[in-house]
Amino acid sequence: MPREPALATLRELARCFQAFESHSAAHIRSLGLTPPQFDIVATLGNTAGMSFKELGEKTLITKGTLTGVVDRLEGRGVVRRVGSAADRRSTRVELTDVGTALFDEVFPGVVARTKQVFAVLGDTERLALEASLRRLREAFESFPQAGHK
């Protein structure tokens, strides 16, 4: 049976993501954070805060896990919950001064490490990869889901 090219590509994409996750998680843990905690700190950095809904949409954290991660960060004094003046049912999550200092301390190093890894690609190759990944993501997003026509 001939090898299916799409499956080979998918396998390599998954292996690349696993390698990224492993590399990234080890570095982030060395900073005293879990990957989901770092994801929240990085997402909230340089913002005035976000609602839980916005935070869930902008991070890779599932809704069920998000509250627990925010609870742990709040316990460490990194984030705080702030009630919305416009909608008392809504709560915003924002970095505290401790959280902002943590973001300022760790985020530049994470970006620098990522840039070092991506340096194996030239600008043209990196931009082409980015465009190809965008097209692939858009194809998945526009393809009808199982059970839908």
3D structure, described in words:
The protein is mainly alpha-helical and 149 residues long. The chain has a single domain (5-142), classed as Arc Repressor Mutant, subunit A (Orthogonal Bundle). It has helices at 5-30, 35-44, 52-58, 63-75, 97-118, 123-142, and strands at 50-51, 79-83, 91-95. Strands 1-3-2 form a three-stranded antiparallel β-sheet. The longest helix has 26 residues, at 5-30. The mean pLDDT is 91.
Low-confidence segments, given as residue ranges, are none
SSE pattern: HHEHHEEHH
What is the CATH topology assignment? Arc Repressor Mutant, subunit A
CATH architecture: Orthogonal Bundle
Quick summary:
This protein is mainly alpha-helical.
Q: What attributes does this structure have?
A:
mainly alpha, Arc Repressor Mutant, subunit A, 3-stranded antiparallel sheet
Describe the SSE topology.
Blueprint: H1 5-30, H2 35-44, E1 50-51, H3 52-58, H4 63-75, E2 79-83, E3 91-95, H5 97-118, H6 123-142
Antiparallel strand pairs: 1-3, 2-3
